[in-house]
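Supplementary notes (optional reading)

For those who missed the lab, this is the record we used. Protein: PilZ domain-containing protein. Length: 220 residues.
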Amino acid sequence: MTQLPPPKSALYVCVDDDTGHRSRLEAVAGDEIVVVAPVEAEKLVAAEVGSHLTVFWIDEGGRVVLPVRLEHIAAGTPERWRVRPLGEPRQAGRRQHERGGGGEKMRISTLAARRAVTFDSTLLDLSEKALRCWAPASDIAVGEELHVQVVLSSGILSHIGKVTIVREASDGIGQHIVVTFHPLAPPTVQIIRRYLFAWESRRRALRPEREAAGDGAARL
């Protein structure tokens, strides 16, 4: 394990939203990390063994983020959590949420009683905050509330959100719509995190193949 702060350093655990719950790095044991359970851990309903969490700390370059999975909760005062990294620490940019995936077919339903309609669309990308999708041209407007449903590899995402962006697709066919979610329940957050983790894993696995293909083309 590289780039971790020294033991007893302060760090933060993100469980079900962007809020960083204060914690402390206790030890590094092989390929796992032991941290002190965040303050008021008993109220964090998404904090159970198997949950995908995020830990972060601050260094001279800003926030450093590490996705992890909660492997074990050890009783005590304070309680201690053993987590397994799901990648390498990375310097966080301006984006607060990881965004990726896309390609799944989905359904959108408008909620306005006078003209409620349901139609098919295609997921373009997804984060814990919002999704972006392609849809046929329509009169959906910014500020309108929609119900979105999409079957992901990790489960079914079915939620209500508010339209924050509507713009024409770059090819002139249909529209791109951004729907910002109303607060998500912890199980829904876990569905999105597992989906993004699997997507990122596939992307990393394909990266050497793309680089090799690019090198081969350059030599032709």
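If you only remember one thing from this example: The domain at 9-91 is CATH 2.30.110.70 (Pnp Oxidase; Chain A).
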